Amino acid sequence: MQALELIRRGIAANTDIDPGLVSIDSRLDEIGIDSFTLLELIFTLEEEMNIELGDDAGTPETVRDLVDILEPYLTETQGG
Question: How far apart are alpha carbons 50 and 16 in whole angstroms?
Fold first, then answer.
């Protein structure tokens, strides 16, 4: 799952959290992602994917929420 790997890399770049411990069902608050760190993570993902999420990002609570936000962008970049 490419989105999950991007998220893990973003978490590793912005935190001391071991990305190997991040699963699709991880709650962001339970793994130590606070609101400020979430913003940093989203900026990192936007930069890496060359996208702007804007309001699409909403307020994800789990890694799965982030995957769901990113996957449509991955499909667009792969398809065209």
Answer: 24
